[in-house]
Amino acid sequence: MDKILEFTSNNTLLVGALMVSFFVVIFSELRRKASGLVNVEANDAVKLINNDAVVIDLRSAEAYSSGHIVNAKNIPSDELETRLEALGHDKSTAIVAVCDAGMSSTKAVHAMRTAGFESVYGLKGGMTGWSQAGFPVVTGKKTKAKKQKNKKSK
After folding, report:
1. What is the pLDDT confidence band of residue 24, given thresholds at 50, 70 and 90?
2. Which of 57, 79, 82, 134 is the most buried (most CB within 10 A)?
3. Chain CA centroid to CA 28, Å
4. What are the pLDDT digits (tens) for 33-75?
């Protein structure tokens, strides 16, 4: 105990910086929890998806077609507010919002929660985090025009 007190008295600046950083971390975590914004890791997102969560890909159509999560709905972030009704009438269904790196999904999560959706989560790290975790990505997107061309050529 004497050594701790001696260290503290000899390194007041270091101990003070440690205490301030500790309180900043605690404060930011409490503020994040109070605001209701929840980001989930890729492993937790898989658990939600396996329990019938809807995945909303907020990236552009080009980015979506270059690789996306299986069964993800592509609703670009700039169109989200006008297309919220397309997400369904059951507002208790879990939703996972995905963007490139996990930054712009925070705004979408907030907008969906404001609209009354109860269980909305942002994917921490976005598609980058998903790929780094080693989870599968679907590439390409069949549109109605491509499907009709394929039917006509057969």
Report:
1. very high
2. 57
3. 18
4. 666 557 888 888 888 888 888 888 888 888 888 888 888 888 8
Residue with tokens 């921490």: 124
pTM, two decimals, is 0.65
- Rounded to whole angstroms, the Cα distance separating 85 from 116 reads 11
Residue pair 94/119 in contact by the 8 Å Cβ criterion: yes
Query: CA-CA distance, 116 to 135, in Å (whole number)?
Result: 30
Task: Let me know the angle formed at the C-alpha of 114 by 110 and 119, rounded to the nearest 5 degrees.
Answer: 70
Are the CB atoms for 40 and 124 separated by under 8 Å?
yes
Taking alpha carbons only, the member of 135, 151, 131 closest to residue 143 is: 151
Alpha-helical runs (H) found in the chain: 2-10, 12-35, 42-50, 61-66, 105-114, 126-132, 144-153
Residue with tokens 């909305």: 120
